[in-house]
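> @MW can you paste both from yesterday?
MW: sure, first one:
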Amino acid sequence: MSEVPQTDVSRPSALPTAHLLQRPSASQILVEQNSAEYLDTIEEEWNKKIDMEVETLVDGMVDLVSLASIGDKDKFRIAQEAFQAQSRAESMVRAANSLVSITHSMKLLLLLSDEAQIAHRRDAELKVVQTEREETRTKVASLLDELLRHPRTATGSQSEQISGENQTR
C-alpha cells in the first residue's frame, strides 16, 4: 500500500529555462522607442493598411472591366465570368468597408487626441511661419532699397549726360 498510484494526469514541474534565439517581443520594442518613433511606426502601419485596401479596390475594378468583354460566349464561360465578377465585387465591398472603418477610426483618434499637443504643434508652426515672414519681409525691403537706389544713380548720371548734351548744342 505504500505504492503511489500511477495515472495519466500530468504533474506540473518547473521546466528549465532556455535563452536560445530569443527575440525581443513587440512590447519590448515599443517600450524602447520614444514617442515620435512610436507615432511614426503607427502612421506607417495605417498607411500600409490603406494602401493595401486601395490596391484591392483598383485590382478589382481592373478585373471587372476585363471580365466585361463582349463576344461569343457559351453558358459555361458566362457562368464562370459571373462567378468571378461576384467574388471580385465581394472583395471590393470588404475593402471599401475596411476603408470606411479606417476612416472612422482616424476621425475618432483626431477627436479624442490630446488637444494640448495639437495646440502646441499649431503654435510652433505659427512661430516658424512668423519667423519666415519677418525674414522674407527684411529681404524684400533690402532688395527693394537696392532696386530703388540703382535707378537713381543711373537716372542721375543720365540726367547729367542729357544736361551736358544740351549745353553743347
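MW: second:
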Amino acid sequence: MNKPDQSDVVVVTGAGRGLGSDLAQKFAANRYKVLVTDLDTSRIDETVELIRTKGGVAEGGVLDVCKKSDFESTLAKALSLWGRADVLINNAGMTRTTSLFDISPEEFSQIVDVNMRGTFLGCQVFGKYFSEEGYGRIVNLASLAAQNGGAATGAHYAASKGGIVTLTKVFARDLAKKGVTVNAISPGPLDVELVREILPPEKLEAVTQSIPVGRLGNPNFIADIALLMASRSAASMTGSTVDCNGGLYVR
C-alpha cells in the first residue's frame, strides 16, 4: 500500500470513542493529520491526546452530523489548519435495540437522521470539495444489519445502514470521473465498548457463540480496511462494500 502524502488530512466523524477513536489513531499512526470530530468535547480531547502522546498530529472539532452547516465548518477548519482535506471517514452513528413494534416515529427519525442523513451530508459536502480538487477518498461505515436485517439491533438501525450502502453506490458513481472514490465497510459485532453497553452479558455471549469464527470482530482490523480504502493506490476501488462479519453473512 502506498504511503500517504506527508500532508494528507483525514476527517473522522464520531471519533471520540470506540471504533471512531481506533480509526483516528490508526490514520495518525500512518502519517495522516487527523481532525477528530464528535459531539462530546471531552471525548474529542481524549482521542486527540492519545494521538499526540504517540507523536501523531491531531486537532479536534465539534460536529453534529445532522447539520450540513457543521460539515461545512468542519471542512473549513481542516482547510484553515492544514490547507487541505483528502479523506472523510463517515463513522458517526447511533444504535438502538428497541423491539420492532415499540419503535416510535420520533426514535425512528432520530436513528435515520444520525446514521443515514449524517452520511449523506458528509458525502455531499466533502464530495463536492473533493471533486473540485480532483482527488478524495470517502469511507462509510455500514453494518451487517444492512444485509441480514439486524439480528441484535433495531429495525431503524438496520434500515439506516442499508441506506448507507445505497448512498455509497450513488456517490461513487457520481464522483468516479472526478478522482474521488467512495466505499463502505460492513462490520459484524465488534469488540468495542458500545456493543458491551447495548447488549447484556448473556445476550453478548449468545451473539458471540453465533459467530462462525467464534469471536467478536477486531476494531483495529476495521481501521486497517479503512486505511487501505483511503490510500492513494486505491483509485480503482469505488462503490464497494467490504464485509467483515466473522462468517455470519457470506455472499
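> thanks! The first strand starts at residue 9 and ends at 12.
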